[in-house]
Amino acid sequence: MTKNIMIVGVGGQGTLLASRILGNTLIREGFDVKVSEVHGMSQRGGSVVTYVRYGDKVYSPIIDKGDADIILAFELLEAYRALPYLKEGGKILINNQKMDPMPVITGAAIYPENIEDKISAVANATVIDALMLAKKAGTTKAVNVVLIGLMARESDIPYEKWVETVKTTVPEKFLEVNLRAFDLGYNS
Predict the structure, then answer these.
(1) How far is CA 127 from CA 46, 64, 87, 131, in A?
(2) pLDDT digits over 82-129, tens only?
(3) Are 71 and 65 in contact (CB under 8 A)?
(4) Please, what are the domains in the chain?
C-alpha cells in the first residue's frame, strides 16, 4: 500500500532538506520512494510543495487532492492551503509560524485570521512552535529538522533510524544543532 506525505512551506524554510531526510529514511527502510518538488516563487518567499510517496512499488510522485496521509506544514497559511489534499483520517503537523506572502506585504491582501482554529475544526492537527524549538536547539534555520522530528514520532520507523539518516544527510558542520533540533521536535 502506498503512503503519501506532503511537505508545504515557504521558500527558504528548508523544506527540501526535510524531504531529503524523509526520503532517505524511507529508502533505508526498503521502500520504493518517489519525490516531486514543486517550487513556486520559492526564492522570493513563495510556496514550496514537496510530494513524497512510498510503498512496495510507487509509479508516480504526484499526490492528488484528498490523498495525503500526512501533511507537514512549515507555515500556517501554507497548512491551510494544503488542507484539500489531506485524506479523511489523515494528520496535519503544523509549525505555528506566520510568514506574510507577497500580496500581504504589498497591502493587496490581509493574512487570514484564526487559521489554527479553522484547520483544527476540520482535521486531525498537531500545532507546535517549531521556530522556538529551533532557537532552543541553537539556530532558527533548524525549523525543518524540528518538524521532521515531530513527524518521525508519528511514524512506525524507530527513532534510531531517523537519527542515522540525519547524520548522513546533514552536513557535518551543522550536525550537532540539527540533532538537538530533531530531538526537540521528536519530544515536543
Answers:
(1) 22, 24, 18, 12
(2) 999 999 999 999 999 999 888 888 899 999 999 999 999 999 999 999
(3) no
(4) 3-186 (3.40.920.10)
